[in-house]
Design brief:
6-stranded antiparallel beta sheet; globular; alpha/beta; 6-stranded mixed beta sheet; Alpha-D-Glucose-1,6-Bisphosphate, Chain A, domain 3; TATA-Binding Protein
Length: 473
């Protein structure tokens, strides 16, 4: 009997050759295939894609073979493909689901397995539990059809989803003004699936695209992992200044997240980025509709909701919560602290490429540099300051959670604690309207401590007190 596979915040991830093996990828796919068959999807199509990590293309073939062996059909991407492009392809190809071989922002030692529903969005928690329950404990219970045989029978079909995706996103943002603006844009795809998209879209334009980290390199040099936060983006921030670029656009390993740097080489953190994008949709595009946010992201969205009279819905962390809530409420935008944002009229999936284009359009429409856009946002909602600490933890998680619940801190960083929300982790409200969140990662053995506050001088103290509440110090 092999070890039980558990789906976290966004699928299953593991260390390559340790627990992330071909046997376990096949077991995962057997569980997903059984789930789809239970829901009457026999003979239906499933999109299968992958990233640029070690052996991802071969793990994807193994997944497609299991789908074919179970009476399903697989559209298998011709090359490494961004997660949002895979998600877009599901409804476009009239498929019923997707399998995506990617560990997103994890370290280079890891790979992962994401599943998506018929809308291209994350499957809700109940569906993930159902899939888990179908995963066999032994590879002998896996049904599989060899690739050559399945391809000959048209049960596995290779395809290129990129052209249709590019056509679609150009209906969501007018590239003409951006192409004519004469900007110099530094793009860092972090050795991942976002390589080549911005150079292609702006080929021959007055706006110049400079791309770094654009080859396939599963070791991800110059960064700990392909996650668009510091210190992973420090090389990109430095290159922004060295090249005299107007802005830095970063996409993570599978291109579903975006990171931003200003013209001075300063990082625009994920909370400010989400607030800026929401502000752009409301003020520039004139959109109106609900905003969906995880509890770990910015209160600036709540303030924008009040200013523009749109509802703001809070969810647990992860797109397995955000995507269903977006569909339920017909939301204008949904997003999370990790830098992933999804949009109405697209698919209920994070899209780092489209997010980057929206930010460039915001620069052009306002005629402002990134640092000036942050100042403009703060003139609307006030200044907000954010930081987080990620730390490995040891010992029993349940015991640590009980200790956090029993801590009852009166102040954090000198600010009075006014409440506690346990929807997903332990979120302490603060007297200035800010917060501190302690939460266990759903994809790695890491404890995260986050804060957002209007008091810049309190950020470090809040995080230090958070470590103590969590029993780390």
């Amino acid at each position: 009997m092999l070890e039980k596979i558990k789906f976290g915040t966004d699928g299953w991830r593991g260390v390559i050759a340790k627990d992330y093996t071909f046997a376990n990828v096949r077991r995962c796919t057997q569980g997903f295939a059984s789930y789809l068959l239970d829901h009457g999807k026999k003979d239906e199509w499933v999109v299968v894609g992958y990233d640029k990590r070690f052996h991802s293309e071969n793990f994807a073939v193994a997944a497609a073979e299991v789908l074919a062996g179970n009476g399903l059909r697989a559209y298998l991407t011709e090359s490494a493909t961004p997660t949002p492009v895979i998600s877009f392809s599901v409804p476009r190809k009239q498929a019923v689901a997707a399998v995506n071989i990617t560990a997103s922002h994890n370290p280079p030692t890891d790979n992962g397995y994401k599943v998506r529903n018929q809308f291209g969005g994350a499957i809700d928690p109940d569906g993930l539990k159902e899939i888990e329950a179908h995963i066999p404990g032994d590879e002998a219970q896996v049904l599989s059809q060899p690739y050559a045989e399945a391809a000959a029978q048209q049960k596995i079909v290779r395809f290129d989803p990129v052209p249709e995706y590019l056509d679609h996103i150009q209906t969501l943002v007018d590239l003409g003004p951006i192409r004519d603006a004469g900007l110099k844009v530094l793009v860092d795809p972090m050795w991942g699936n976002g390589v080549g998209f911005f150079p292609h879209l702006f080929s021959g334009a007055r706006t110049q695209i400079v791309e770094i980290h654009s080859e396939r390199n599963p070791l991800f040099p110059e960064m700990k992992r392909p996650e668009p936060i510091r210190p992973n983006i420090d090389a990109g921030l430095l290159a922004t200044v060295q090249t005299g670029s107007d802005v830095l656009i970063i996409t993570d390993g599978d291109a579903d997240r975006v990171g931003l740097g200003d013209e001075q080489g300063n990082f625009i953190d994920q909370l400010r980025a989400y607030a800026l994008i929401a502000f752009y949709l409301l003020e520039v595009r004139g959109f109106r509709g609900p905003i969906v946010k995880t509890l770990s992201t910015t209160t600036m969205l709540d303030k924008l909701g009040r200013i523009y009279d749109v509802p703001v819905y809070h969810t647990g962390v992860g797109f397995k919560y955000v995507a269903p809530k977006m569909l339920e409420t017909d939301a204008m935008v949904g997003g999370e602290e990790s830098g992933g944002y999804a949009y109405h009229g697209h698919v209920p999936e994070r899209d780092g490429i489209l997010s980057g284009l929206f930010f460039l359009d915001m620069m052009v429409k306002f005629g402002k540099k990134p640092s000036e856009l942050v100042d403009l946002l703060f003139s609307k909602v006030g200044a907000h300051y954010y930081d987080r600490i990620d730390t490995p933890f040891q010992g029993d998680r349940a015991a640590r959670e009980q200790a956090i619940l029993s801590a009852h801190p009166e102040t954090l960083g000198g600010l009075k604690v006014t409440g506690l929300n346990t929807l997903d982790g332990y979120k302490f409200s603060l007297e200035d309207g800010g917060w501190m969140l302690i939460r266990f990662s759903g994809t790695e053995p890491i404890l995260r401590i986050y804060t957002e506050t209007t008091r810049q001088d309190c950020v470090a103290g809040i995080l230090e007190d958070g470590l103590r509440v969590a029993g780390i110090k």
